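Hi Q.,

Before the meeting this afternoon, I wanted you to have the iron/sulfur cluster prediction in hand. No need to reply - just skim if you have a minute. The sequence and ligand are here:
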Amino acid sequence: MLDQYGRNIDYMRLSITDRCNLRCRYCMPQGVTCPESHDDILRYEEILRICRAALALGIAKFKITGGEPLVRKGCVDLIAELKALPGTEQVTLTTNGLLLQEKLDSLCAAGLDAVNISLDTLDTEKFRAITGYSEFSAAALRALLENCCTRGLRTKLNAVLLEENRDEVADLAALAEDFPVDVRFIELMPIGFGGSLTRVSPDEVLDTLRARWPDLHPTEEKRGNGPAHYYASERLQGRIGLIDAVSHAFCAGCNRVRLTSTGQLKPCLSFDSTADLRALLRAGCTDEELKSALEQAIYRKPRAHSFERREEMTERRTMSQIGG
Ligand code: SAM
Ligand code: SF4
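Predicted structure with the ligand bound:
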């Protein structure tokens, strides 16, 4: 459907849990507990009902996210059920990858269309410092990528640009040389704990990458639902993507809304204004009422975020609550 500014909204991110098995310092640092109680989290049948209403409005692409979506029991079945809804075009997943290898067969059998694996470093020590997890192995990551690619699963790697990994961007990007995967660098957004950390500019990253791949050039290819700008090189099987959400806002082309794990429909990352779909569902609303609530909230989607004018930001939730 079109919002009040004529943007076509066809993509919904579904956070299915606020829990996670990592503690990334920009998202849910050590010591932070997950605030939502079990009863407050949407049940799968509630999520599917919202998706049916979204489909009736022309939203046909869904991304499963969290917290870490693979820690919630039944995630694979949800994906299969979403895929089976009439009209669904695409179901994709964003994961930190820890549980991906063991669930890959069932995810592919469920019909998953693509996966984004979040990975900020290839160094075990840095991985521990960023995420609190000490078992990371670059060899295991390579085996996982090999497995995803062998199965024909479209795979992207997402690295948030941090002070810790600014010297590692070329090594991370080189994974697109070894595998047919896209490697994307995401500018740190001032959401939750991200607001207190130093932002690294994607322009700086581009200079570093051009030093390693001198023929790196922009490509206009559309590679998924996101706002990344892609770059290609003869020597790369995949593409390198930059997501400069803060320094070059791409709000004019924004196509997405978000559903938090507690059933709040969130039209823009920057603002806390939501439509409480859980309350509506649990009060016994009709399908028509649910669709109308979605329609109104999406229509009123703000024109742009206010990451560069922090005083105007009203969102206080963490990224793990929102879903990224
Ligand atoms: N746990 C899953 C994962 O890490 O992919 C899914 C949820 S996570 C919140 C989704 C994405 O948001 C991840 O790629 C993560 O790196 C990104 N993210 C979290 N906090 C961020 C921030 N402040 N700025 C930019 N990206 C952020
Ligand atoms: Fe967990 Fe993903 Fe947040 Fe890291 S970015 S703490 S993996 S939800």
